[in-house]
TrEMBL record, chains A, B, C, D, E, F, G, H:
UniProt xrefs under InterPro entries: YtoQ_family_protein
NCBIfam families per record: YtoQ_fam
Taxonomic lineage from the root: Bacteria, Pseudomonadati, Pseudomonadota, Alphaproteobacteria, Rhodobacterales
Protein name (Swiss-Prot/TrEMBL): YtoQ family protein
Amino acid sequence: MTLSIYLSGEIHTNWRDEIESGCAAAGLDVTFSAPVTDHDASDDCGVAILGAESDKFWHDHKGAKLNAIRTRKAIQDADIVVVRFGEKYKQWNAAFDAGMAAALGKSLIVLHSAEHQHALKEVDAAALAVAETPQQVVQLLTYVQRGTLPA
Amino acid sequence: MTLSIYLSGEIHTNWRDEIESGCAAAGLDVTFSAPVTDHDASDDCGVAILGAESDKFWHDHKGAKLNAIRTRKAIQDADIVVVRFGEKYKQWNAAFDAGMAAALGKSLIVLHSAEHQHALKEVDAAALAVAETPQQVVQLLTYVQRGTLPA
Amino acid sequence: MTLSIYLSGEIHTNWRDEIESGCAAAGLDVTFSAPVTDHDASDDCGVAILGAESDKFWHDHKGAKLNAIRTRKAIQDADIVVVRFGEKYKQWNAAFDAGMAAALGKSLIVLHSAEHQHALKEVDAAALAVAETPQQVVQLLTYVQRGTLPA
Amino acid sequence: MTLSIYLSGEIHTNWRDEIESGCAAAGLDVTFSAPVTDHDASDDCGVAILGAESDKFWHDHKGAKLNAIRTRKAIQDADIVVVRFGEKYKQWNAAFDAGMAAALGKSLIVLHSAEHQHALKEVDAAALAVAETPQQVVQLLTYVQRGTLPA
Amino acid sequence: MTLSIYLSGEIHTNWRDEIESGCAAAGLDVTFSAPVTDHDASDDCGVAILGAESDKFWHDHKGAKLNAIRTRKAIQDADIVVVRFGEKYKQWNAAFDAGMAAALGKSLIVLHSAEHQHALKEVDAAALAVAETPQQVVQLLTYVQRGTLPA
Amino acid sequence: MTLSIYLSGEIHTNWRDEIESGCAAAGLDVTFSAPVTDHDASDDCGVAILGAESDKFWHDHKGAKLNAIRTRKAIQDADIVVVRFGEKYKQWNAAFDAGMAAALGKSLIVLHSAEHQHALKEVDAAALAVAETPQQVVQLLTYVQRGTLPA
Amino acid sequence: MTLSIYLSGEIHTNWRDEIESGCAAAGLDVTFSAPVTDHDASDDCGVAILGAESDKFWHDHKGAKLNAIRTRKAIQDADIVVVRFGEKYKQWNAAFDAGMAAALGKSLIVLHSAEHQHALKEVDAAALAVAETPQQVVQLLTYVQRGTLPA
Amino acid sequence: MTLSIYLSGEIHTNWRDEIESGCAAAGLDVTFSAPVTDHDASDDCGVAILGAESDKFWHDHKGAKLNAIRTRKAIQDADIVVVRFGEKYKQWNAAFDAGMAAALGKSLIVLHSAEHQHALKEVDAAALAVAETPQQVVQLLTYVQRGTLPA
């Protein structure tokens, strides 16, 4: 039972690497996908490929739609969607991905610090697990695949 | 063609009243639904009905799930989901509702000030209209139902 | 927003009446459906209408399928499925209904005493509310429809 | 035509091993999945990974949700869901899985002794086969894949 | 709980009238739909409206597609599909309707004499009831709606 | 059996009026929806309500999305989608609507002159009827609802 | 683009072999599935594995359900469903499979002699091709996969 | 993350080759499908395999349905549908494919020259990218898969 996992949300810390390397170290049979995590490329992809826009709204719009080609595919293919809320920014795209994942019947895991607990209560209520650290996510995935608990 | 509209998001300004009274004044054939907008009731409904929790996480969790009974029904029944992002708070539940609406194929209208344009670009990219004022939403709905433009 | 509610499970106590009369007293805009609660009719309907069976398995089989015509329709039409687990019997049909409701994306409310908490943990985990009394269900439905809490 | 089979239900006897080894002996092209069958790990996984709970309800709740990540994936991926009802315990989770499988259009095989026939009539009525022994399930799967009957 | 019922199949006996008048006499809250039962109109509708065809295949093809506009709508709107197999003709369209009904998750009731039992075993296996007389169908619908058995 | 019909395509002739008045004269139980047929309003609705655009692409884009709120709703609610291809313009939006209708399982009726037969062969191949005149569509709808043919 | 093809219907002639060997000779990238074509095994599988029945109806019922595990899987996995109507028997199961295939959006190819044209008009109307010989089906599949026509 | 791409539309220029060779040169992990691009074979396939028709409408009809077996499969299997509108012909089949792709939730990329901008505004409004050259499509796909922008 290979698990396909989409890692959505925060792009400014190395939480994805921690989960991916932790799963690799554990020898799990998992595959990962993620949004483009190069912030500048993600912001400018639309105009870089399809032509400049004088209006910032359309500059962003073209880029957001290109990114959606990747993220929609990744969410649809995933068994599990892990959404990480970090300490900075509005991160509405992370909550938007969580809403899509819930509506599509994906297993949702939310990853955030205790500080955001109240603000994320609706997102957490749709999740099958709420974790605080990437290490917990590795342990979760290990349990889901193998049925073994951390020593 | 009655239009069924869910008004999601910000609960601290009277934007819902403006849209509802504007549509009533225009004589549109529309029905509205909304989340519970009494902030205290919304926060405490779970424990008030199902029993107290010592842990804030579960206090919130019980409430968020009760609210989900209402909001899921409202989104599923809607033709159009209008999501309002205000000036304050994280509003992750609003973005979550937008994600659900998009995944369910609902027509999405996003309502926010120019200030939030960049942070909301992924949400806006999934929308069929991005408005700044409730009056624009009234005009949109008038056009969608009758094909007439504002004078 | 009329709420359509299916009341599944135990047929030997008057919990359905309590919920229906409580909602009527509160003036809620709700409709209820239920399985056939006449135990003998429910057991014998198949052979009474379609002819006797010498084998008890097929006697039961014919009846269970007739009842399924009613219960499948009721679950599919429901916004909310309330499943009551009582003190007696195996009640596997109640858990089966809960599984169908969850898979169909219905809002699930489970009603049972504390005694069954551990045995029902998988069912409860799929629910949006776990109540112990019919009165709590009336309060829940009142909140979901009107946003008001019990005094 | 590889058949993907989820083996749901009782975890205290070796019925899964009998089916899996029987199919292996027959050389069938089948894959199996199952819930975590280590009872203690299954009960405690939530708190072991995500932190202790003082309230037994939430202890169970966290665990049941983790287990749901595995079981939902397994049911969704399955062509055939075999649900075994044993002699002990309430086994409401088994009936819940059967309800999900039926609602998702999976082929359902129920495995139980004659003693439970009446209590399981609604579950049996949704099934494509009702067997009493693991050996019968092996014979069923052999027939489904190859069209050959037991000698 | 209004029941919506599509009466498919044989058009040369008055079985539909018997079911409809029986339900009316019982005062049931049901609605009925049916294919066009005027054999000549049904055969010739395509060419009568859209122009003659020299080739019998296309003559039939145009008519069958017009009829499909009506029958697809009726099946999709139905809660229950009753399919009657009579004594004459191939009646492949009846079996085709039954297949569509089963795939769409409709409750299927099959109505035929004992003579056709073996030939209809695959259709019967997908049904929730197999009846021999229109009167049994009336009794079934009475039970499904009211829970009462024939005296 | 009320029929809900979406009239898509050409907006420069009075074909919709002919169908609607023909059905009214026949006393059919049908409801009609249509795109906004005021060409100028349809082109300019986006900028008229949501603000001007200097770039023609975005001017059109905002308008096309507003119109999609209406047309998606109309197609989703329809039992039958009639798509009219006229003599002028590219009419790609008409073919696009036909593709959506086909993918959503709607009954598709195509209305065009013989001249366009070869160019429309893929669209016609997905249709249940291909008509040349509005009068034929009225006759079709009369037959579908009542089973009667033109005298 | 591997094509997955289910060969439904008549089991008393070698039409499946002709299609399979023809496709093999042409080197097509296709996979085939079929019902169990051993008539006796197909009739008796239920009682042979799950125990004898004194009533012929239930004897057939148990067998038909076992066979449905195989055929439902095969239809769901197929891109294309070819349904062959032969010269003998009622063949209602073939028409039932065709109805399921149509409702599930599978590409339907019907294979029958001219003699059955009128009786099969509703089934043919749902098909994307109506062929008279297995050789035509091989040519069809060759064209669908490669775009080449018979010399 | 292998991307599966359907290249719909114009068959008289080598735009498909440019995209395919560009992606190959970039080493992308993509698979392509396309309609039959041999114009004569595509027009005549129906009669060449299934027998001649005297009426041009049915000649075209049989061919269009055969082609639909291929195109429906290709669209359903695709993650991304690229639709190219060229300079000539009505190309209603291209717009029809775009409508199907949109209704099925596929990521839609439209490829056309500026000249067609106004006429394609409804199709463009449903797209996640609107490109003018095959090279841009290669760059888009490179970005979607790898997150890298053109130098």
